[in-house]
Design brief:
This protein is an alpha/beta fold. It has 17 helices and nine strands. Strands 2-5-8-1-9 form a five-stranded parallel beta sheet, sandwiched between helices. A two-stranded antiparallel ribbon has the order 3-4. It is globular and about 65 Å long.
Amino acid sequence: MSGQRATVEAMGVAVAAGVPVLLWGAPGTGKTSAIRAMADAAGWPCETVIAAIREPSDFSGLPVVVAGVVHFAPPRWAERLAEAGRGLLFLDEISTAPPAVQAALLRVVLERVVGDLDLPDRVVVVAAANPPEQAADGWDLSAPLANRFCHLDWEVDAATFAQGLVGGFPVATIPSLPTGWDGDARVQAQALVAAFVTVRPGLACALPTDAARAGRGWPSPRTWDMAARLLAAAEATHASTEAVTALVTGALGPGAGTELLMWRSEMDLPDPEAVLADPQRFVMPERGDRAYAALSAVAAAVAAQPTVERWLAGWQVVARVGTTAPDVAAVAARTLAQCRPPSAVAPPEVKLFAPLLKGAGLL
């Protein structure tokens, strides 16, 4: 698969998951056309806003005094998206936006708030940028703004371009995610990320020291959560390996993202629902990081649906590990203690973790 086709697929998955996307590529390579084509194919409205020619008030809202109260009036493009209920907010030429405008975009990208207007959840932010050295009066993206995006590289190769001229260029489709995709799949992805960050604590938040790298993807608590969401969406849509790689490295940066993917390929973790259905058959993985990831997934699955039966089964699993590796089981035990169903009676397995839970104020 060519780099551009992988990027097209990854962009569709990210939009379906509601994750803000930023396409990086040289001028004249079709970034804007690809984003507009994606919106047209999905039947979504697309509002294009060129950040370089806007003022901060175009995003933070224009102050208007009404009956002695200051309101921040949103622009018309934001009102049109709110009326439509879904769509793409396309921020073009974002790398030419001055620092004051980038600051005003922070809340727009993260919370989809424009002035006093909350955009619907089904409005997704997509941006395009030229590298600063190739842009007209370009700036490096500020680290806080860059940390809100999944960054994808828009590459153009001769074969893809030639084929596109003759037979049409690839169009990003926004896949339909199955109902509940952010339930079990996201729980497993979050458990995987949590286990990895426990093994590599130095990557929990690693802001690059130079402005150029800080203006792209880098690991932070926000982007780790973003990576888990993207992994879950990619799993639900059966995305290609190339698209998954683009999504994870786009959120976390090439270093942390590649390390997570390599570590993930070695895990081979059990399905937490299968473990909860028959806890007696659970076999603890020999490696500590695998055991931690498996237990975290089981505890997170119980927390997502804390019935009495699932809660008791979760304690059986945690106790099987806690008898030989209490440190590995400690986090899962805390999670189970916090999600105890109101009518549940503490099982005997809780005694194994009584000192830990008492010290944490959970028992």
